[in-house]
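Aim 2 progress update. The chain analyzed this quarter is reproduced below.
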Amino acid sequence: MPGVPQPPLIREDDPKTPFLLTQYMQDLNRMARNLTFLDSDGAIGTGRRCLNIDAVWVHYISNGTANTEDTVAHNLGRTPVGIWVSVPDKAAVVYAGGTAWDATNVFLKADVLTVTVDILLF
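Predicted structure tokens:
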């Protein structure tokens, strides 16, 4: 994969193995510190680079009837292509409703009533 350091070929009997493993773990640690999700004005990104994910968080509470469609407003400024659902407050499946999403709203359903969850729209 381009841009991702690859572990060198390591043999257990090679005296350089501890050094090479340490170096590789340090590289992974450095990358992990630079790939933090931040909720800053709806931008999710590294915090120090211009490579933000074009996404927004929305707070969703499903209505009082399971499996019925809810309209959820967002300020993404374009039609979202997908969602990541955070941990809901109760066991539930949140999924897209039957209405097409647009630049101002998404249409979601939940298989239980009044589930509360944050959703990342991207």
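The helical segments are 17-34. The chain has one helix and six strands. These observations will guide the mutagenesis experiments scheduled for the next reporting period.
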